[in-house]
Amino acid sequence: MSLARKRLLGLLSGAWVAQAVYAVVKLGVPDMLPDTASRLAAATGASEQALTRLLRALCTAGLCTEAQPGRFDLTAGGRLLRSDVEDSVRLHALLQGDEVFRSFAEIMHTVMGNGPAFEKVYGRPFYVYLEEHPAAAEVFNTSMGETNLPSTVDLSWARSIVDVGGGDGSLLLRLLRDGQTGVLVELPSAIAAARVKLEPLGERVEFVEGSFFDGVPEGRDVYILSRVLHNWSDDNAGRILRLVRAAMPAHGRLVVLEAFAGGGLVDLLMLVTLEGRDRTVAEYRELLTANGFAVVQAGEGSLVCAPVS
User: Fold this and answer.
1) Fewer beta carbons within 10 angstroms: which end of the chain, N or C?
2) Active site residue 251
3) What is the pTM for the complete model shown?
4) Could you tell me which residues come within 8 angstroms of residue 44 by beta carbon, excluding any fewer than 6 positions away?
């Protein structure tokens, strides 16, 4: 078998591995390892034979080991499937294995120009679905807070920071320093989780529950859009930017945090599940300029913008 054929067949079977990962994460198996398949099956209610075969497949994928027949453990990479480790991908495995996987089964709906396959499968837009399904909302809102502010972006001067669409508040929790206050603008499902996450900050944080399409708090020093704009079409991304621009004082700054890839696998995810797309730095500059901003600092994954009169 040629190397090219072997590689292509590996890519085609990638969905099998992803769904096997989803299944073991759904059962909570990674948090129980190391252990035997028989005890794992008894604890989860799964078929021992099926679970054994599933875990052996994950051994082939490099996520598990079987040092003794029927006794499994996680590799270093597999440990990221646990819920109690830093940088855990457990929640992502659940989302990718459920809603996203089912959406990709209808990818031809999108390819033929009929809009996100997600809406065909679930009968409603992505964000409406999240508000109706708390478990899926938890996954998404947690992921929205995973982006870090680059060290080149200095917000120490700001007295107030607004995180627009900031998920569960994780970014605000990491950002706010003594003397700074924060505002989280989010949908109800995210606000519920954020109140718990941001409890250590007490009254320094204000929660604005609702859609950012209805407006954002006025007169604050810094507004952050972290992995928000790529979820939306150019028209709706422009609406968001104009609302932020209208709320900003002359000295204010907008910080845009994105991957700036302009295509690739994440862009494919956007295509199937949402109306948005990944954009290049040049495309974001054009979008920002058209909606009242000038880029004053550009870095890896970040654009700092000033309002233009």
Assistant:
1) C
2) no
3) 0.88
4) 27, 28, 29, 51
